[in-house]
Amino acid sequence: MPGSDPPGHPGRTIVVAFIVRRVIAAVLMLAVVSAATFAIFFLIPRALGQTPEGMASRYVGRDATPEAIQGAVKRMHLDDPILVQYGRFAQGIVAGQDYSLGPKKAECPAPCFGFSFNNNQPVWPTLLDRLPATLSLAFGAAIVWLISGVGIGVISALRRGTLLDRTAMTVALAGVSLPIYFTGLVSLSVFAYTLGIFPGGGSYTPITQNPVMWFQALILPWITLAFLYAALYARLTRAGMLETMSEDYIRTARAKGLKESTVVVKHALRATLTPILTIFGLDLGLLLGGAVLTESTFSIQGIGKLVIDAIRGNDLPVVLGVTLFAAFFIVLANLIVDILYAVVDPRVRLS
Amino acid sequence: MRKINVLTLAAMGTTLALGLAACGGTAGGGGNATTGSGASGAAASTAKYNDGYTKVVNPSDAKGGTLKFALTDEPDSVDPGNTYYAWNWDFTRLYARPLMTYAAEPGDAGLKLVPDLAEGAGEASADGLTWTYKLKKGIKYDDGTEVKAADVKYAVARSNFTDELTDGPKYFAQYLDADGYKGPYKDKNLDDFKGVETPDDYTVVFKLKHPFAEFDFLVANPQTAPVPQAKDTGVDYEKTVASTGPFKFESYEVGKQLNLVRNTNWDQATDTTRKQLPDRIEVQYKQNAEDIDSRLIAGQIQVDLGGTGVQSAARAKIVGDPKLKDSTDNPFTPFNRYAMMSTQVKPFDNIECRKAVQYATDKVATQAPWGGPLGGEIGTTAMTPTTVGYKAFDLFPNGADHTGDLAKAKESLAACGQPNGFATNIAVRGDRTKEVQVAEAMQASLDRVGIKLTIKKYPSGDWSAQYAGKPDFVHKNNLGIMVAGWGSDWPSGFGFLSQIVDGRFIKPSGNYNMMELNDKSVNDLLDKGIQTTDATARNEIWAEVDKKVMESAAFLPFVYEKTLIFRPSNLTNVYVHPAYGMYDYTWLGVQQ
Amino acid sequence: MTAPLDVSGQAMEAQPEAVLEGVGGKAIEGRSLGQIAWIRLKRDKAAIIGAFVVVFLTLIAIFAERPFGGLIALFGDLPNVPHNNLIDPMTSAPKAGWGGISLEHPFGLEPVNGRDLFARVLSGAQISLLVAFLATLVSVVIGALLGVVAGFFGGWVDTLISRLMDVFLAFPLLLFAIAIVGALPDQALGLQGNGLRISVIVFIIGFFSWPYIARIVRGQTLSLREREFVDAARSLGAGNGYIIFREVLPNLVAPILVYATLLIPTNILFEASLSFLGVGVNEPQASWGGMLTRAVDYYQIAPHFMIVPGLAIFITVMAFNLLGDGLRDALDPRAR
């Protein structure tokens, strides 16, 4: 049962060793992902016939002379072997790098993901700059879906077979069957442009600038995004609850004469929530790497919008940066979930 | 994809009636030389649809307030020497003064050049190989130091001869006699740059390889706005631009926001084309297009900086509401939207097959994606109506309503030896919805005479470097038709045509003469024109070139692009500048 | 459970072993598992409705354009024929009210060019279902093979495959798909145009979603290999290949079927998202996601243009989900 590891237990060193092992694994995983990502964006285009000049021509404006393109190839070392380029890229992330901006060198401190082809800005600060919008969207939606999804799932499980249960589950099934850009457009159309209750697309304002506007502008995106996940979580919670409720220990608890609410909250819900929280961690990690569709639909200038714009504009350094950034969050979320599990459930460590 | 990027247009400057009212800021100057609607200020609500196209709407000299711009995109750079967007060439004039600029007037008068940093128009030597400009004395940067001729020279050197500043055009590199110069970032000694000479602090002499009668247009490019060598930080200079215009940088967050405030070191007495009405100017980048429209209509912001017009939702609303419609203008932009047929791809090597396409195209269908009549007027020439030298004609009338003359198309097909039609490809920038829709319309309209098109989509980023702009690729992939657009860098026939019709400009990559038209008479006329100093005679030649190009039947114009731009009632002193096809940003004020 | 899109969805199948436990379970009272499942399924009205819709839509997709122009031709209008005369050039919207919905155009007209939406929705159904089925097939083949190998052999093989799954799950799938499809040339690998794009989309979706199937198969295999009949086969001298293909895999058909059914709607949504983001099939071939992209610019003045493809996606995905849920419930006694 969760949480049964008493403090000061001799298992502590094992926990530490476990954590160290997982952290090392996570770092290795990131290295593998970064290499694979780099290969996909640099190797595949090459294999399909892209030349260093072709890549450089994205960096110099239109009407570039052949000399200017050659200059860009040299400056960005696009003609180096791919491994050398990857080495330089990895070095930039770990140790930073210098770039020529004209009369002087610009320092691009670690972690350096290079400069955008499109606006010459370093990628990393741009990412950080876009992060608050994505964080606002992801965390806000997460709160909404966790509460509503788990709540509905529990009620459905307890009222299993009733009209309430069936309605909730039908809505939930509909929720997971709707593309988010469709629900997003419909909600914009109805609530923003027809009824005028909420502001329209593109009205996101940083919380530091105007908390009220921030909140108003995010209500629709939160609800739209949360609807999808809430539907999913309601289904998961309900299934999990039904399963735990039929476990022996629940029957035992009931037989001992515990109050039904205690049984539900203390035992059934607790057991159900552990796997849900795992999934929650992973989902959140994934979203932090950019909610591409939601941000596009609502024109929120977050990480997801950044990457989709970059892909459309062929802005490789930004695409590469965001992909790694997103992978980082996924790996991080995995790591945290693993470690929490290990702390909570000692059996995991031994496996 | 609302970028207009490529090819921007035109020119720069603005100005109003040369020395008239604008100078000195005489009160009530709103009327200036242009028509003006009488009493300043009060007349706000009486403006009608398209009024801003012919006169100054809401004339006012009232100072103060914050003028707010918004843009769906972000600029390539706000460095005047490193940008290629038409709207940005209009906007940079707020803080950067080139040697020459356009007269601040609506209508054709605005296409005339007037001196800005210079005292007068350039003086060409007898052989046409040197152009000399005298600088006005006492023009200062926002820090109070005086502008020197060397700063202009340096600005030209950095924007045209370095690998780092890649976003702007490279006309000076092309025309100046400066072979072997490595640019100021590799070679710190500016004396090694022989293309421009500065005999004293107030004289700039340009040395050309070949005579170029429209050189004044070139120096109206923001790239001649002075940059002090000591202050240049290359790509990063956009964050600390030294201002010579009525406004200077207060703060700039790349991709987000630019704030300008009054430049107290700017002197109205030296400047005939600008005003300094608002206290500050704020620009927000990366805004949602629909949101911009609703804020414009609500008067919360004053200008859509890109000048690309309102979105379809707002357009529908405006069309249905006469009051709203009176707050809009519908100017031509400098863009022509067209397709080119490759003369090197079978069966378009036969002019009759090209003619068949000219006759069979339903130009109402190809106009629809641009937004119908509000988005463009059906075109029949290579040059646009706002290009100096434009003359209207139609060599291939395709039915009274432009929906196609199928009988004539079939005649041409028969003459081409393909009476039942043929199959070919149409190439298009896949990420530009409107252009894809045009290709779809072409597909449907040519299908009526048996010409089967397959649509090929390519990314716009590499469009000219690797696909449609690469003749090898075009031939290999049988790209018979390519959908394109062009807006000239300065509004003359040469500025418009030379890059896209001169046979000697056919490049192995980055080619804009995609039809690969290499007609000696066209090439010769272009050469003759650019060496003709008499403007009237020159402009006649441009019209002749246009006709020759159309005779080849390889150039298929769809629309002369127009935009429906909204003019909020609290925006004062507003008129459409013809060189940009958008409002003159240096004139605007805001009612408080 | 379906994958939500913004996430690429490892979320939902995180604990599949638990849910599916017992699927390969003992036969009760001489009835085969299949018979029991069938009886259960028949009682599940929602699943039956879902099944009918799925069959109906599949038939529509198959017969949309063939033979002889198919259903589309039967109803008159072709998907790529413009009707500019029915569009108001000033607003780009259909002249007639309600998006131009009429007897000739039961779903109305596309803004700007007036193409018939009924024909386009039918035409788009082919793409959606084709991509979804093929991609699911790819991931089932890869996932089942790797999953069974990992579960059966255990040890370093299992470790290797499990790590591989982790790596795949750490890739932001949607981003990759967009970037790769977006960078596709017009011709490669002997294919061109939409043929190439569809192949690549199928491959990417299938290739990145195999871990979901593999995890389930691995878990099931782990328990199966300890079972008596496997031991029996081995004692009779059967080789590993024989045991895997003849003994283990046949017992995994049920869970694979369930998860394949549940993967199809995910893949439909995935394809639609790619098209929505502009990296799906090329116009003028209709696709539901592509129609929605264009609807973005017109949803305020021509809402039907958004609603028609949106509902098409919704109904299809919902039907597959109902069927998949029903199948799972029928095969898993404890999930009810």
How would you describe what is shown here?
- The complex is a heterotrimer of chains A (351), B (592) and C (336).
- Chain A has 14 helices and two strands; from the N terminus they run H-H-H-H-E-E-H-H-H-H-H-H-H-H-H-H.
- In chain A, helix 1 (12-47) packs antiparallel against helix 13, helix 8 (211-245) crosses helix 10 and helix 12 runs antiparallel to helix 13 (316-344).
- Mean pLDDT of chain A is 81; it is low at 1-8.
- Chain A is 73% helix and 2% strand.
- A two-stranded antiparallel sheet of chain A has the order 1-2.
- The radius of gyration of chain A is 25 Å and the shape is globular.
- Helix content of chain B is 24%, strand content 17%.
- Chain B contains 17 helices and 23 strands.
- Chain B has a six-stranded mixed beta sheet with strand order 14-18-13-17-15-16. In chain B, strands 8-9-10-1-11 form a five-stranded mixed beta sheet, covered by helices on one side. Chain B has a four-stranded antiparallel beta sheet with strand order 4-5-7-6.
- The relative contact order of chain B is 0.17.
- Mean pLDDT of chain B is 88; it is low at 1-44.
- Chain C has one domain (43-84, 91-330): MetI-like (MetI-like fold).
- Chain C contains 13 helices and two strands; from the N terminus they run αααααααββαααααα.
- In chain C, strands 1-2 form a two-stranded antiparallel ribbon.
- The chains are: A mainly alpha (351), B alpha+beta (592), C mainly alpha (336).
- Chains in contact: A-B, A-C, B-C.
- At the A-B interface, helix 2 and helix 3 of A face helix 6 and helix 13 of B.
Highlighted features:
heterotrimer; A: 351 residues; mainly alpha; MetI-like fold; 2 domains; two-stranded antiparallel ribbon; B: 592 residues; alpha+beta; D-Maltodextrin-Binding Protein, domain 2; Dipeptide-binding Protein, domain 3; 3 domains; 5-stranded mixed beta sheet; 17 helices; globular; disordered N terminus; peptide transmembrane transporter activity (chain B)
- Average pLDDT number of chain A: 81
Distance between the termini of chain B: 34 Å
Outline of chain A: globular
Name of the top-level CATH class of the largest domain in chain B: Alpha Beta
Strand order of the largest sheet of chain B: 14-18-13-17-15-16
- Specify the number of helices of chain B: 17
Can you tell me the CATH superfamily of the largest domain in chain A?
Answer: MetI-like
Q: Tell me, rounded to a whole number, the average pLDDT of chain B.
A: 88
